[in-house]
Known about the structure:
Blueprint lengths: L10 E4 L3 E9 L2 E7 L9 H14 L4 H8 L5
Antiparallel strand pairs: 1-2, 2-3
Amino acid sequence: MLVLSRKKMEALLIGEEIKITVIGIEGDKVKLGIEAPENLTIYREEIYEAIKAENKEAAVVDPDALQELLNLPQK
């Protein structure tokens, strides 16, 4: 992990297309501004982890429910 120190209104670059700027510091919170291409999706880590967990749960197939669907009469 790279650890950097930045002051208010200082920035760092990730590659040539992503710029992260420290907008403000309030107590133990830091406000960041992120400039990135529109096609790049940016998530807070806790939201990303929740999405992954929901996707994993949605991918689980209930064998009984699947069998019921397979036994439905064809229209």
